[in-house]
Amino acid sequence: xxxxxxxxxxGGSLYDAFRERNIAAIGWSPLADIESQALERIKDKVSxxxxxxxxxxxxxxxxxxxxxxxxxxxx
Length: 75
Description:
The protein is mainly alpha-helical. The protein has helices at residues 15-21, 30-47, 51-64. It has one domain (11-64). Helix content is 52%, strand content 0%. It is elongated.
């Protein structure tokens, strides 16, 4: 016999959906604050970049997405 532990909120409204998909989730509202703070820090750092650094950042993001790209300096 399988064992199952269940702690739920919101009246168990997601129980059936989670059971059907064999998934579990943990939600904690303070995490939303951490995410928004992180995004603000990233925005602040990116806005402080010089043009050359911004080009390198963008090229790095595109490379991470699988694109082959390099930054060529022009006069």
